[in-house]
Write a structure and sequence with these properties.
The complex is a heterodimer of chains A (288) and B (300).
Chain A (H helix, E strand, L loop, with lengths): L1 H31 L2 H6 L3 E2 L6 E2 L2 H32 L2 H15 L3 H18 L14 H25 L3 H9 L4 H12 L1 H17 L2 H6 L17 H8 L9 H31 L5
Antiparallel strand pairs in A: 1-2
Chain B lengths: L44 E12 L2 E12 L3 E5 L6 H5 L12 E9 L2 E2 L7 H7 E4 L10 H11 L6 H11 L3 H4 L12 H13 L5 E5 L7 H14 L4 E5 L3 H7 L2 E9 L5 E10 H6 L4 H11 L1
Parallel strand pairs in B: 3-8, 3-9, 6-7, 7-8
Antiparallel strand pairs in B: 1-2, 1-4, 4-5, 9-10
Helix pairs in contact in B: 3-4, 3-6, 4-6, 6-7
Classes of the chains: A mainly alpha (288), B alpha/beta (300).
The complex binds adenosine-5'-diphosphate and magnesium ion (MG).
Chain lengths: 288, 300
């Protein structure tokens, strides 16, 4: 008991510690840069002189990549989960589940190179002209696509757990009323597993927002206020990763900028979690 | 309780042309023939199994079951736990299809048509043959949505409000539920949940109602209400009930089949019907000593 409590306490303290560590330099940052500038300026060039702190460019960069990622990952992850839990034979499930877990463990840098050396050339070579300009070597769309592929196993595996946990009595009740497998899956199992499914979505989106390596390698790392998938962009995480090297001086504006962006990222994920817990409370069907 | 209830279609829907044996209309009820074999091509017989054997993973659980189920009767399956009562019941609406390891051999006739012949859609079977389970299993939705679920997924062109009210009345739940139709069904008591499951099954206007130990999770008062309900529903439906409670069988059923486990030639423990008889006779003058032992041993 006591050791469990200690574990809980440690994780709580770590969270509080992170918030405190972010807060100090962030407050100092906003003493030098007005929040209005931070949120409304068009250009993100914090290390240039004269510097410009329009964070919107990298916020939109993050949203751009995240959008394409979840467009892929949420529907495909959910469909994979429905297939595994409601359609697949026991044998298929026994093989596929561990494969999903292995996929989750592939280092993200591998996905980054997969995007750069395989997906991007594939897209560029087969780009249909009527869609306009083909994407460059670095593009938000290719990074988002690969990020989405990377997140599918996470979404699928957590959703599948939630759906498998739905009591089989509910399925039997529906089948006995003449429901088809599709109806049982969509009208009984998915609603009953909704809180777990939403949790998997939130985790997937959080991973997309927080992911660094793939976007760093495949999206180009150049700030660009655009939602276009064919252009190269920079995300918040990629900015932090490229800027937070050993040689920046503590207390410099660059140093504080990193913390300000980190705090903003933190707010993003916190917001995600609040929205999701609201969604869960609003829509879940409690079955016991 | 049956006020406001609408007539149940007794004629077969066109989707199910039956091979020869037409369902009985509202004709006079015939005396139960008792013995399964005695009622060949009897219009009073709604369902019949012929030499049904069920195996799980290749190991037989039930062997050579031949039994007739009569219209507007309550037929009870009794026997010790694990003898195969549920397995047999699940043959009547092809619920065993959902267990990948289960295999059913022999035929299960519904108005003369084999439900297990190729081309029969189990989904279609289940809309005619409803089922109520041992543990109440309402969906985690509103009371209304629970009852409306069947008609909705079957795309039945009905006045849904009317179907919900009729079904809840038939299940003797209307008075308790009418002011809280939008409430979650899981807020009901266990007995109410089970009556809701009965209402849910009745909403699709089935012909036969299968009930697998519907009272085993309920207290005596709730049990009494469900038993009264079954007797009332018998007027319109054909009911098959599994029970391990022999008093219940004597209270509600017209016919009783006693199932027990025997060792077959390969030393497998398989269930088989020892005696199928009018309930009163089976309990008062059992023909088989094994029935007598079970019946007296448990009641006395
Ligand atoms: N899904 C299953 N898989 C394997 N064996 C089963 C399964 N369901 C039932 N059985 C076996 O079949 C026999 C009959 O079970 P069941 O029909 O549930 O009996 P009852 O309802 O009379 O208690 C038992 O020996 C049981 O272990
Ligand atoms: Mg049973």
């Amino acid at each position: 008991m006591a050791s469990l409590f200690a574990c809980a306490l440690v994780s709580l303290l770590v969270t509080v510690g992170i918030v405190l560590a972010l807060a100090g330099p962030t407050i100092e940052f906003f003493r030098e840069v007005s929040p209005l500038d931070f949120f409304s300026a068009q250009e993100w060039a914090p290390t240039f002189s004269p510097a410009s702190f329009g964070v919107l460019s990298i916020v939109v960069g993050t949203l751009n990549v995240t959008f394409w990622a979840i467009l892929i990952a949420l529907p495909m992850g959910l469909c994979a989960a429905i297939y595994l839990s409601e359609y697949a034979s026991r044998r298929t499930r026994k093989v596929v589940k561990p494969v999903l877990e292995v996929l989750e463990g592939i280092p993200t840098v591998a996905y980054g190179f997969f995007a750069l050396t395989f997906i991007t050339p594939l897209i560029r070579d087969n780009w249909p002209g009527f869609l306009g300009d083909a994407p460059g070597i670095f593009s938000a769309g290719a990074a988002g696509l690969v990020l989405g592929i990377m997140i599918i196993p996470t979404v699928a595996s957590i959703s599948e757990d939630a759906m498998t946990a739905v009591p089989s009595g509910l399925r039997e009740g529906a089948y006995a009323l003449g429901a088809t497998r599709r109806v049982v899956a969509t009208r009984v199992v998915v609603p009953a597993a909704l809180s777990g499914i939403i949790a998997s979505f939130v985790l997937g989106i959080s991973r997309a927002i927080g992911e660094t390596m793939v976007v760093l390698i495949a999206a180009g790392n150049t700030p660009n206020l655009t939602f276009s998938p064919v252009q190269s962009i920079q995300t918040m995480t990629a900015f932090i990763a490229t800027t937070a090297t050993g040689d920046i001086g503590v207390g410099t504006i660059t140093y504080k900028t990193i913390f300000a962006v980190g705090a903003l990222l933190f707010v993003f994920t916190l917001g995600m979690n609040l929205i999701s817990s609201w969604l869960v409370r609003r829509f879940r069907e409690v079955y016991e | 309780m049956s006020d406001g209830s609408m007539e149940v279609p007794v004629s077969e829907p066109a989707a199910r042309p039956s091979a020869g044996v037409q369902p009985a209309g509202a004709g006079p009820r015939q005396e139960a023939t008792g013995r399964a074999a005695g009622a060949a091509r009897d219009t009073d017989v709604v369902m019949r199994t012929e030499d049904v054997t069920v195996t799980y993973d290749g190991i037989p659980a039930l062997r050579d079951i031949t039994i007739d189920i009569h219209r507007n009767r309550i037929t009870a399956f009794i026997g010790a736990s694990g003898c195969g009562k549920s397995t047999l019941l699940r043959c009547f609406n092809r619920m065993n299809d959902l267990i990948p390891t289960a295999e059913v051999r022999g035929s299960v006739l519904y108005h003369g048509e084999d439900l297990y012949q190729p081309g029969v859609d189990p989904v279609e079977v289940r809309r005619h043959i409803g089922m109520v389970f041992q543990k109440p299993n309402p969906f985690p939705k509103s009371i209304y949505d629970n009852v409306a679920f069947g008609p909705k997924v079957l795309h039945m062109k009905v006045d849904m409000d009317e179907v919900v009210e009729r079904s809840l009345r038939q299940a003797a739940l209307w008075d308790e539920a009418k002011d809280r139709l939008k409430d979650n069904a899981l807020g009901l008591s266990g007995g109410q949940q089970q009556r809701l499951c009965i209402a849910r099954a009745l909403a699709t206007s089935p012909d036969v109602l299968l009930m697998d130990e519907p009272c085993s999770a309920l207290d005596p008062i709730a049990t009494g209400r469900i038993e009264d309900l079954m007797v009332a529903l018998r007027e319109q439906y054909t009911i098959v009930i599994v029970t391990h409670n022999m008093q219940q069988a004597t209270r509600v059923s017209d016919m009783t089949a006693f199932i027990t486990v025997e060792l077959d030639e390969h030393d497998n423990r398989t269930g088989t019907i020892i005696e199928y008889e009018e309930t009163g006779r089976l309990f008062s003058q059992p023909a088989d000593p094994r029935t007598e032992e079970y019946v007296t041993g448990r009641i006395g």
